[in-house]
Specification:
Oligomer: single chain
Radius of gyration: 22 Å
Distance between the termini: 28 Å
CATH superfamily of the largest domain: Glutaredoxin
Number of domains: 3
Structural class: alpha+beta
Helix content: 25-40%
CATH class of the largest domain: Alpha Beta
Strand order of the largest sheet: 1-3-2-4-5
Number of strands: 16
Number of helices: 16
CATH topology of the largest domain: Glutaredoxin
Shape: globular
Length: about 450
């Protein structure tokens, strides 16, 4: 039986609760899902290899849904994908697989946003990725049942399949890169706790590798070797808002709005533009845009072709150095473990402009309030070092420059090693207090 230490379990429950509630009977939910789905006529249950074999044999494209059943996030769209009559004719053109755990997935094939509780990857039977789907809109609202965007993704994947293999060159950028581990259970922090197969004879939930644990384990593997955590693991799958564009939720990749003075705005993107391709890749959903950003360099440019008023327009989206650090990671489950590494368990938020004015803090200065202070294990390190709830960080490592929680996490994980302590000044009421932030 795999039993998490109390501190790890409490940390995990805190992280999950911060983003979505879980069902009360987690064990029952998983077992009920199995009972309902393993004999379903459309869905192959928890066996992606069988899905690839059937896709090769039939010539159909393969659709793999990855769903964390105990998590209520995305429950609405999950139910609709399984039940909505309008989607049935499209789904029947795919070989459909439902995975409820990540223990045995091939990490060279399954590269997606691990912080989501519902994701879909579209494949050819030979393993070529056609596209990805994952929605933060649904992640934040478990009652959201809208499937217009999912329908658009299905249609986009079918169009790519119809053009395959003549379009294979355009799909090269969609493929996952090499990984140091074949499966999640080979990563050191997971290897001693999990097996390839679920323990259906015991406590099945405790035997399940959740997708977000993959990101946690990869970050820990770098940290345990004394290496910096790569930026793509600190700021994974940047949402389009990072570059100043919001995409419509009911289309494949249509621009709903653009921030004028932003990367997208300066690159010439306009409201109403529809991405035909980005970095040479055909887009089937906003998750495909995030994939391109995930693999994008720190600096450079991304060629884009958009449909504007029915005509193709070619643009270059210029990415300045440091653009990735502007990604908002505050709502990600994976950020919880990084808070333990970089912040000793602090959960930070910026003061509003009104709060800054009230306390006499300039807009260009750091002002991060501790809205939470961890109490257990590694997440209690800041508390043990003297930090308290509502402390406001006003200086860190000699810098007064304004910074978000995410930017600070990235900086500390890049520049500081476990065991070191960072000189920090906090405001506590009317007092300025000098403390040392422990890096782990």
């Amino acid at each position: 039986m795999n039993v998490l230490p109390l501190s790890s379990l409490l940390g995990l429950l805190f992280a999950v609760a911060a983003f979505a509630e879980t069902v009360k009977d987690r064990e029952g939910a998983v077992r009920n899902d199995k009972a309902a789905m393993e004999k379903d006529a459309r869905w192959i249950y928890n066996d992606f290899r069988a899905g690839f074999a059937k896709a090769k044999a039939t010539g159909k494209p393969l659709l793999v849904v990855l769903r964390c059943v105990p998590c209520l996030s995305c429950a609405g769209i999950d139910a609709q994908v399984l039940q909505e009559p309008e989607l049935a004719p499209l789904l029947d053109r795919f070989v459909c697989v439902r995975l409820i755990n990540a223990n045995a997935i091939d990490l060279s094939l399954f590269q997606f946003d691990y912080d989501l509780s519902f994701s879909t990857i579209f494949f050819n039977g030979d393993g070529t990725v056609y596209g990805r789907y994952g929605s933060w809109t649904h992640q934040r609202d478990p009652m959201d049942k809208t499937t217009a965007g999912y329908k658009a993704a299905l249609q986009g994947a079918l169009a790519i399949h119809a053009g395959y293999p003549a379009n294979k060159a355009a799909l090269v950028g969609k493929q996952g890169g090499p990984t140091p581990f074949k499966t999640p259970v080979e990563i050191p922090t997971l290897a001693d706790r999990y097996k390839l197969e679920l323990d259906w004879q015991g406590k099945v939930v405790q035997s399940c590798v959740h997708c977000h644990q993959i990101g946690d384990a990869f970050r820990a593997s770098y940290r345990d070797k004394g290496k910096p955590v790569p930026p793509e693991w600190i700021f994974p799958f940047p949402q389009p808002e990072t570059i100043g564009v919001t995409l419509a939720t009911d289309r494949a990749a249509r621009v709903e709005s653009v921030v004028g003075d932003s990367i997208a705005g300066r690159s010439g993107l306009r409201t109403g533009d529809e991405f035909i391709s980005l970095a040479g890749q055909p887009m089937v959903s906003p998750a495909d845009v995030s994939w391109v950003l995930h693999r994008a360099p720190q600096g450079g440019s991304l060629p884009a072709v958009v449909s504007r008023a029915g005509s193709p327009v070619t643009l270059n989206i210029t990415l300045p150095t440091g653009w990735r650090e502007k990604t908002d990671i505050s709502k990600r489950v994976g950020t919880w473990s990084m808070r333990g590494m970089a912040l000793g368990g602090l959960v930070l938020e910026e003061l509003t402009d009104a709060e800054r004015a009230q306390r006499g803090i300039a807009k260009d200065r750091v002002a991060l309030r501790a809205k939470g202070v961890g109490q257990f294990g590694k997440h209690a390190a800041a508390k043990n070092a003297g930090f308290q709830k509502d402390d406001v960080i006003a200086e860190i490592d000699g810098s007064f420059a304004r910074v978000t929680e995410g930017e600070l996490i990235g900086r500390l994980l890049k520049d500081w090693k476990p065991g070191e302590r960072v000189k920090t000044t906090v405001l506590r009421g009317d007092r300025r207090i000098e403390l040392s932030l422990p890096i782990q």
